[in-house]
Amino acid sequence: MDSIYDAVRRRLGLLKGFMALVTALEAPPARAQAAGADTAASAEAKQKAQTPPPAPLPPPLLDTKVGGGTTQLPTAPRAPTLPELAHAEREATIEWTTGAYYPRDSSELRGHVPVHILRLSTELPVHQRSFFVGGTYEAALGSPASTRAPFVLGGNVELQGRGVWSTSTGLAFGAGLGIMFPTASFDRESRDAFSLASAAIALRPWDYSFFQNGTFAFRPFVDVHDTVGPFIIQFREGLEWTFGVRDDTGQRVFSLATLYVAVRLFDTVALGMEAYQLYIIDAYVADERRAFYAISPSVRMMLRHVQPSIGILRSVGPPFYPATDTTTAMRAGLTLLW
Description:
Layout lengths: L1 H49 L10 E6 L2 E6 L16 E13 L11 E13 L3 E12 L8 E16 L5 E10 L9 H13 L11 E14 L2 E14 L6 E16 L2 E12 L10 E11 L4 E11 L7 E14 L1
Antiparallel strand pairs: 1-2, 3-4, 3-14, 4-5, 5-6, 6-7, 7-8, 8-9, 9-10, 10-11, 11-12, 12-13, 13-14
């Protein structure tokens, strides 16, 4: 029995030693694998820490020919009044504004009477997306000062040329010159004509020179535009030097400023706000009658060949039309691209 017991004990001891040897041989690879896993996890965490956050989506780009090659410039929604600075297409715009002024004393002025303004404009690139020429004509319809039937008051015609330097990031600078020709013809002594012209200027103060009879004007301006992700900002500062050519009406100097801020909600829809200032520089008027302001929130749809817009136009502070408290208007426009 002792010999059998000793034999079993020796075999169990050999089996135990064999298992210990197997464990010793397998331990180093396991430790190496664990160490490798720790190293990989550390490297991945370090790479994540060094990776910068994703940048905002850039604005949509449009290929255009520049020099002998092709570059990309961003597209941007057109403001109701200002042009897209570096557009590639020929464009024509028709805009209709309908509004009314609210007098302080309804016994002297006919308030709440509709006044309508038609604006026709066109612009086309003449050299790549850097130089442009265009023209604008406006007319007014209404009878704000009397009970006569509404009548049409034709305005002046402006021819314009401008240049722009732009980058693929959306930053652009430009300058140009508009020349107003005296195509408007109405009796300066007519109360009806003067009231309709003043009412049109009250609704759209930046259109002062369009509704001046027998007036020739120079309109230099500078433009700035920037696009950051879905946000767009555009600014135009201009001067107007007007002088009469049909009678001794003298000279006038004005400052015009327009600011447009918008956000592109979708690829084809943008929500924006325009603000305007007309400032009389050289006239002998009271200080409270020198500056006139208006704001216009709007929505623009950007399709390939048609870009409609709709908005509200409202004065801020005393309007240009005398003895009135405020003006309010609706505006709708349609831009055709080809």
